[in-house]
Amino acid sequence: MKIQSIKGMYDLLPNQTKNWRQIENILHSFFSVHGYGEIRTPNIEQTKLFKRVIGDETDIVTKEMYSWEDRNGDNITLRPELTAPTVRAFIEHNLEKLNKNTKLYYIGSAFRRERPQKGRQRQFSQFGVEAIGSEFPEQDAEVISMAYNIYEMLGIENLELVINSVGSNASKAKYSKELKKYLSSYSNKLSDISKKRYQNNPLRILDTKDKDEIKIIEGAPSILDFLSKEELEHFNQVKRYLDKLGTPYNVDKGLVRGLDYYTMTTFEIRTDSIGSQDALCGGGRYNNLVEQLGGKPIPAIGFAAGMERLVMAISGDEEAEEKVDVFVLSMGDLAIMNALKICDKLRSQLGINVRMDLSRSSFKSQMRQANKLNADYVVIIGEDEVNKNIGIIKDMSSGNQSEVALDTIHKNFDIASDE
Ligand code: AMP
User: Fold this and answer.
1) Contact 320, 15 (CB under 8 A)
2) Stated pTM of the model
3) Which among 57, 102, 295, 306 could disulfide-bond with 290, CB atoms 3.0 to 4.6 Å apart, if both were Cys?
4) Cα 210 to the chain's mean position, in Å?
5) Reduced to 3 states, what is the DSSP secondary structure of residue 296?
6) d(CA 79, CA 52)
């Protein structure tokens, strides 16, 4: 019986990893020029980290985490997101001592046992940033516009950035009470899941995808009316900065986001070009999180974005075409030996992307391979050529050929490889 990968977890094959690597490289340089340093944390953390950070009543913690008891009795979990591990590491390594503002980014795997569908996997990759140290709206504007600029720079179309503010925990609590009051007259129309949330976490009802509930919510009080004067001014200032930066946004008073740790600014970036799972990126402020995890009261803001959805938005379903600089055709023992040597020199001395056939295929088949790989040049070494101690270099675009001494063939290429 064949053994298959686990449901919702996928292999990335070479024709996909090439795209991924390019995008990852772009992200590394993008974050670096913004002054963000890369952090890599373990895939597994103590379960209580996520319980404490994400919230006991959230879907992630109640239904989606891969958690188990380790052999020594520790409760551990495959990370469902990377903010909690990043903040844990920030505190553990006293990073605030190095800098007043700590700017971190990550690219790594996350695991959630959700129902798999297009754009929703059980193992997926996230990239994101955490800017820890500043409570000021300019920090919000920087993080939000950075996130937006990534997608714009990569040419993703039909982007929508929505922002909101959920205020401090005190404002959230006041609003929760009012929201419950409003929803109580619709209690028999709420879905089972919303009924549960009504008790435990009423703000989450605003995240509903249920059409009837969306209608009910349209009439609900707005969280923006429950912010303090300072909180509202903070939000207005974020908007003014975004206006100045030319980052277009819509305010969505229903955007509370799934995780409990958000305070103040929340935002999400969507596109309609990747199907129903349209959220590319989500983020917001979490001013209490560092303290909640045992650190000092240091404010922070960040975002997390799905790599798979970004790759999907960039490339659709099309596969990257392979391209090589040189293909060396060979026939017979001596020719193969020379071809191996030429390939080695071209690769190691010039970094040229070169291939040869290793299955002793016919010349015709080798030429087909060269064409399929879009080789710029082919080198032909048959028995005649070996006897004359030469190889033939053919320029595939012009068709021009020249005969070159075998041991100098590699000197005829000065192609800067693009890989
Ligand atoms: P969240 O931490 O839920 O706000 O997710 C942040 C981003 O990660 C989302 O906007 C998606 O792009 C991506 N994402 C979240 N869950 C999944 C999943 N199960 N499969 C693929 N991407 C996901």
Assistant:
1) yes
2) 0.86
3) 295
4) 27
5) coil
6) 13
The model's pLDDT over 184-242, given as tens digits with 9 standing for 90+, comes to 999 888 888 888 888 888 888 888 878 888 889 889 999 999 999 999 999 999 999 99
Q: Report the nearest atom of ligand 1 relative to the CA of 116.
A: 19
| Helix pair 14-33, 137-153: axis angle to 10 deg | 150
Ligand 1, atom 14, residue with closest C-alpha: 306
Q: 33 alpha carbon to ligand 1 midpoint, in Å? A: 25
Cα 279 to averaged position of ligand 1 atoms, centre (Å): 7
Q: 135: how many CB neighbours lie within 10 A of its CB?
A: 15
Taking the CA of residue 112 as reference, the ligand 1 atom at the shortest distance is: 19
**Low-confidence stretches of the chain (pLDDT beneath 70):** 258-259, 316-320, 414-419
Amino acid identity of 159?
L
102 forms bridges with which residues in the sheet?
132
DSSP H stretches of helix in 202-228: 211-218
Atom number, ligand 1, closest to the C-alpha of residue 281: 10
Q: Looking at the DSSP assignment, which residues form a beta bridge with residue 103?
A: 131
Give the model's pLDDT for residue 320: 61
d(CA 409, CA 407): 6
